[in-house]
Amino acid sequence: MGLSSGGTISHSFVWLKLMNALLPPPSQCREDGLGLLLEREVTARDNQRLGRRLRQAKLRQNAVVEDTDFRTPRGLDRALFHKLAGCDWIARASTW
Fold first, then answer.
1. Which residues lie below 8 Å from residue 45, measured CB to CB, with a gap of 6+?
2. Which of 46, 55, 71, 90 has the fewest Cβ atoms within 10 angstroms?
3. How many alpha carbons lie under 13 Å from residue 10 in its C-beta half-sphere?
4. What's the CA angle centered on 80, arms 66 and 70, to 5 degrees?
5. 65, 85 in Cβ contact below 8 A?
6. For residue 48, which of 3, 12, 10 has the smallest C-alpha distance?
7. Any idea what DSSP says for residue 2?
8. Dihedral class, residue 37 (left if φ above 0, else alpha if ψ from -120 to 50, else beta)
9. Rounded CA gap, 42 and 33, in Å?
């Protein structure tokens, strides 16, 4: 597992050292703290990965499916649009 950019590992290490200094010897709290530390690291890495992918995509707008305006006459089939947005067709390996 490589180091994530932004020093997440070093911040986590400092947090772990602090936790070890403040908590009494072996306790359930230490195990819970380690679990939280690992969860925090995974979340930080996921957020960095998502941020990098969004930057690389160079999207022109922050658009979401829920904001689609069907009142504008563009010939959109509302039922088909929502069916495709559900992404069930990906799991079935279907094409449209």
1. 4, 8
2. 71
3. 3
4. 45
5. yes
6. 3
7. P
8. alpha
9. 14
